[in-house]
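I have been asked to look over a protein record a colleague put together. Alongside the sequence sits a line of tokens, each denoting a local backbone shape. I have pasted the whole thing underneath without changing anything:
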Amino acid sequence: MTAYHEAGHALVARMLPHADPVHKVSIVARGMMGGYTRVLPEEDRFFWTKKQFEAQLAVFMGGHVAEELVFQEVSTGAANDIEQRDEPRPSPWSPSTA
């Protein structure tokens, strides 16, 4: 299931023109993480466009959708993606709290 889940993230990131490129995919479990897909921007980013945010959300949901399509159910790995998506991200418009 992990391979399909991570492939879902990677495929969505690869196909969307405004998504960051896939840097690495692993299905080797590490601690609580069953696998991961690492996407990295090609250059430093100080501003995000709406299309980039939408692409990032689609990449987060790619694993969830892949599981639903293949297995007709979702795992706790997909739930973690939703939690990750809901966590606030640092904004370039917000002053630093450091």
